[in-house]
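#struct-help
A.M.: can someone run this one for me? Single chain, 297 residues.
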Amino acid sequence: MSQIKLLPARLEDAEQLTAIMKRTFDKEAISWLGTVDSHIVDYNIQPPGYDSVQNTRYMIEELTYYKIIAEEQLVGGVILTLTGRRFGRIDRIFVDPSFQGKGFGSQVIRLMEEAFPNVSTWDLETSPRQKGNLHFYEKMGYERTFETEEEVCYIKRMNNTETPYENEFETRNLEGATFYETNLANSAFSNSTLAGAHFSNINLSASRFQNINFRDSLIADLNLSGTRVKHVEMSGVEFSDTTIESAPVTFERCELMGARFNNCRLENVEINNSDLSGMKIDGISVVELLEIYRRKK
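D.P.: on it. Structure tokens below:
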């Protein structure tokens, strides 16, 4: 069996890693959905942004991203989220289809677990359609904890004997709890439910929110200056009575089809290198206005 090694991914690896990831997940889509462009939405088979170099760059910068090297070649990657000192999540593992069947996946899991000996619990999710994945993770010691028609969740509890830290809480039911004048600075929340939680008069500066379901939430009376919003699904989001004054907001590589701006101040707004088809201002086609302007100019 060929041996592999894991090395930290670098930004200059982004294009190659993206190409490998696309080949890998496109093959999975064909195998389990019948086509790359299936009408079935399965984010475990085709993860959001799996074919985007910018998304790969984001994950290299913000997550724990290793490239898989075999036979002196870059053949895949593994992306992890580490929470606190003892909890880890496997976000994605992918190996180029031309290198599959060589046992690399098993080696990746073992090397990953050896690299983080303090992690006591690893979790992940996969699609129930990917029968091979179910068999693979269970062979590697992962146990099913939750299952629906859309996903299967796994946890592996390691046999390390490290005593939990005093302020670490695992598998606790605190539903309905209230925290007042509580210092939770630098705390980490992972694999937990905060549905219906209410945050008021809270200092969340320098906080990080990743892989979070904010569906149907209310976000109001906030100071978001300097905040970065990356790779976010915002369908149906409404912005009202919101002020942007001291520094411009920048939208790059965003899909804003169908967005509406009503009764807004847009002075000094710039739109460059963007698809304006169908865009209207006060009911007038922007494309037609630009054509008339260019002809007259």
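A.M.: thanks! The beta strands are 4-8, 64-70, 73-83, 87-95, 121-126, 143-147, 152-157, 280-281, 284-285.
D.P.: also worth noting: The longest strand covers residues 73-83.
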